[in-house]
Specification:
By secondary structure, this protein is mainly alpha-helical. The chain has six helices and four strands, in the order ββαααββααα.
Length: 153
């Protein structure tokens, strides 16, 4: 049993977060008090959890994200869906590119920001936009696309 200095309650030691640096291996504050202190600190120092994570991950705050959304006319620059929420960044340079909707941000992530793969996907969609094709036509189309990829690479 251990007493939490914030709430003053005696609780079992597993009610306290682990901490290798203390003698007993547990934080002085119980989990609910520990979490409340963390929330209060984020709010006090960073203006909230969203702002804290934006600064930590992308180097920009909530105000800068709102400014980007305003510059994008309040919509996703890819699909024009209103109120985008997801910060998009270049994984190679960490540079923020814009703010996208959930689906567009996830789509770019699935293509691993590979411009050629996105071009191939566009070509695939445009080629398949006509009537249904037979299995032999699909195989031939896939072979042609694979040959183009080998020539480009």
């Amino acid at each position: 049993m251990k007493r939490c200095p914030d709430c003053g309650e005696w609780k079992p030691s597993d009610a306290f977060p682990r901490n290798r640096r203390t003698k007993d291996g547990r934080h002085p504050y119980c989990k609910p008090c520990h979490n409340a202190r963390g929330r209060e600190t984020r709010e006090r120092l960073y203006g909230g959890s969203r702002h804290y994570h934006l600064v930590r991950r992308y180097g920009i705050g909530a105000a800068e994200v709102e400014e980007l959304i305003r510059k994008q006319a309040g919509a996703c620059p890819i699909c024009a869906k209103p109120d985008p929420e997801h910060v998009d960044h270049d994984h190679a340079t960490a540079r923020v590119r814009g703010v996208l909707c959930f689906n567009c941000n996830g789509g770019l992530g699935q293509f691993r920001d590979d411009v050629q793969a996105l071009r191939n996907a566009i070509e695939y969609l445009e080629d398949g936009a006509g009537a249904l094709v037979g299995a032999n036509d699909l195989v031939a189309s896939a072979r042609d696309r694979a040959r183009k990829l080998q020539v480009v690479s």
